[in-house]
Amino acid sequence: MREPLPADMFDELCPSSLNPIRFGDKWAALVIRCLEQGPRRFSELRVPLSRVTPKVLTRSLRSLERDGLVRRTVHVGAAPHVEYELTPLGRSMLQPLAAACAWTAEHWDELLDAREAYDNAAG
Amino acid sequence: MREPLPADMFDELCPSSLNPIRFGDKWAALVIRCLEQGPRRFSELRVPLSRVTPKVLTRSLRSLERDGLVRRTVHVGAAPHVEYELTPLGRSMLQPLAAACAWTAEHWDELLDAREAYDNAAG
DNA sequence: GGGGGTGGTTTCCCCCGGGATACCACCCAA
DNA sequence: TTGGGTGGTATCCCGGGGGAAACCACCCCC
């Protein structure tokens, strides 16, 4: 059984807009990481991504779908719902994404220090 | 002796804005690749990046400098000039950048096909 | 038939990245 | 003294990304 996504999954994570390495739009990298373990529903994604408004999350998912990285499946039946999952192409992106995450994890402090020093020097 | 940067260095390369993986702003990844072989002058960078206006290139370089990825050195003397070079932190980014470039090189066509199929299906 | 859950859409607004164009100070060589 | 190279700025403008808030259709269950 897949674990539900924890609400504080990205609390410690820097906002994407501060990271010089970006995959897709502002939230795409976090979406991809949410889908790493398997398919997720829209409302399921909204738990860790509570700071993302539904409009923006929809657009991000549509963009990933357009690029062939994510597949959107509508399950009809008694309790109809929608599931998003990574395609093989999307999975292939996990490798460079992991490389980027590793770099960020290793050098994030260094980068923030550089920014602070630059801002202090230049006012 | 370092080779001068060829003017057509990025003619075959997809514009950064189409690539889902981005390092820094629109042109930062190309700037970093220009600095891979060693220090470069502003006017030297403008050769392969002829489509980038000086304002935008300056801002991109300033941003990289602020993040501690690039060092800007003013050489005073008889013929004063400015040189930009990668810092160790900037060099450390070459690895995830290479991973991202490899992914793009391998899957770019696939991604474009997915986009075309999506756009054709949805109008 | 009312409430809750699902999966969004619509509208409005703001800001920032990016492009075009023009201009600029400094220095050197002719 | 005039021109060219260097390394940029200044100004204007536009489009799109992103956020806030409200609303919505559909379905099931009580």
Produce the secondary structure layout.
2 copies of one chain form a homodimer.
Chain A: E1 21-23, H1 28-34, E2 40-41, H2 42-45, H3 54-66, E3 70-75, E4 81-86, H4 88-92, H5 94-122
Antiparallel strand pairs in A: 2-4, 3-4
Chain B binds a DNA duplex (30 and 30 nucleotides) through residues 17, 25-27, 41-43, 52-59, 78-82.
Characterization of this structure:
The structure is a homodimer. By secondary structure, chain A is an alpha+beta fold. Chain A has five helices and four strands. Chain A has a three-stranded antiparallel beta sheet. In chain A, strand 3 and strand 4 (about 80-85) form a beta hairpin. Chain A is elongated. The model of chain A has no long low-confidence stretch (mean pLDDT about 90). The interface of A and B includes residues 28 and 117 of A. Strand 1 of chain A pairs antiparallel with strand 1 (about 20-25) of chain B, so a sheet runs across the interface. Chain B binds a DNA duplex (30 and 30 nucleotides) through helix 3.
Number of strands of chain A: 4
Classify the oligomer.
homodimer
Decide which structural class fits the backbone of chain A. Answer: alpha+beta
Order of SSEs of chain A:
EHEHHEEHH
Main pleated-sheet profile of chain A: 3 strands, antiparallel
Instruction: Give the number of helices of chain A.
Output: 5
> How much is the radius of gyration of chain A in Å?
16 Å
The share of residues in helices of chain A is 40-55%
Biggest interface, chains and residue tallies = A-B, 30 and 30 residues
Shape of chain A: elongated
Roughly how many Å apart are the termini of chain A? 53 Å
Order of strands, main sheet of chain A, comes to: 2-4-3
Identify low-pLDDT runs of chain A.
Answer: none
Strand proportion of chain A, as a percent range, falls in 5-15%
Mean pLDDT of chain A: 91
